[in-house]
Amino acid sequence: MLEKDDTSGSKSSLPQWIGHPRPLKSYAEFQPFPSHEFRKIQKLANAIHGKIYLYEHLPTGKRVVVKKMSTCNVISFTPGLLEDALTEIGVTKYISSFTQADYVIQMVGLYQDEEFTYFVTEYSSGGELFEHVVQAKSLSEPVARKYITEVLLAVKSLHHNGIVHRDVSLENTLLHEDGSIRVIDFGQSVHLYSPRGPRCDTPLRHSGKAGKAYYRAPEMYNGDYEGAPVDAFAVGVMLFIMTVGTPPWNSAVASDARYKYIEKHGVTKLLMSWGKAQAMSPGLLDIIERLMCPDPKLRMTIHEALSHPWIKAQDQNAPTVVVPQMRE
User: Fold this and answer.
1) CA–CA distance, 216 with 183 (Å, rounded to integer)
2) Three-state SS annotation for 223-251
3) Would you say 191 and 204 are in contact if contact means Cβ atoms under 8 Å apart?
4) Considering the chain, what percentage of its residues have pLDDT values greater than 90?
5) Mind listing the pLDDT tens digit for each residue in 58-110?
6) How many Å apart are CA 220 and CA 263, to the nearest integer?
7) Which of 21, 37, 44, 50 has a CA that sits 20 to 30 A from residue 304's CA?
8) Hey, what domains does the chain have and what are their CATH numbers?
9) C-alpha pair distances (Å), 88 with each of 22, 82, 84, 94
10) pLDDT at 257 over 90
């Protein structure tokens, strides 16, 4: 079981060959908080660095999400803690103001005073995709295909802009009011390539068990690793959970019996033993198998996944997704 700036104006993607142009958190630039322009509606959730609220932006009448955090916590990053508020802010600012990214949450404003930092983003009224999967038990292939295609496009956009997410998950995917998704939470993001120096096509290697245990790639437990394959692995786990209704394992380590079985026999054999594979199309089984490949060198890439026949087999009548509104 599952447990649980203003973007108007033109954007232009910076040349890919320079890698990412600056440290991610350096894009965070703050203004004084115009409290008279915002009306608090309700608290939505607790976060690692603060609390998340639903506000109304009075000049536009639009609802927005405000993550209110202690300024001290934002500017004083604790060494060893993977979740960095300033990195989350910087990535969202960069994506919203300097480039184009598909299906990624957009920043509305960024404010700070001595006591609090106010990180304001667009409001996705459907809440977490995780909750919809829990309620539905599992998603049909057409609906899962729609969502996972948008997640793949979001991750592709991030990688194109030199950013590795490292915490891709159902919990970090929101449903927007138009039925599309928004990927959020960049607090564990890192550079795909070096931000400085001459042209370099060799991906950086990273360390640290980032992300949630269900989605974490096995190489994250075994020293350093490249960033793009761990995002692809997490997308595969998302698709598994969406269509099967349960995580494949607790964590992708040798001591986990289900992971050990998959490592030896493959995902399809496990699903056959559960009596699930028979109800899944061969294409779906294949893309899950290849995205969740334990060996990052053999694992399907995001680009390959977007070209996979199962992804390309869009139904003539695309599914109409009704997004339930979060209760207020």
Assistant:
1) 17
2) CCEEHHHHHHHHHHHHHHHHHHCCCCCCC
3) yes
4) 73
5) 999 999 999 999 998 888 766 666 788 999 999 999 998 878 889 999 999 99
6) 15
7) 21
8) 16-122 (3.30.200.20), 129-312 (1.10.510.10)
9) 14, 11, 6, 10
10) yes
Give residue for tokens 């300033």: 86
Structure tokens at 306: 């977007």
pTM to 2 decimal places:
0.89
Residue with tokens 């054999």: 269
pLDDT digits (tens, 9 = 90+) for 272-310: 999 999 999 999 999 999 999 999 999 999 999 999 999
What are the tokens at 294?
């334990």
Mean pLDDT of all residues in 225-232: 97
CB 181 within 8 A of CB 168: no
Which residues have a Cβ under 8 Å from the Cβ of 128 and sit 6 or more positions away?
Answer: 170, 171, 173, 174, 175
Tokens for 245, please give them.
Answer: 């209704």
**Residue in this structure with the two tokens 């009596």, named with its chain if needed:** 275
Residues 6+ apart with CB under 8 A from 325: 125, 126
What digits encode the pLDDT tens for the residues 119-158? 999 999 999 999 999 999 999 999 999 999 999 999 999 9
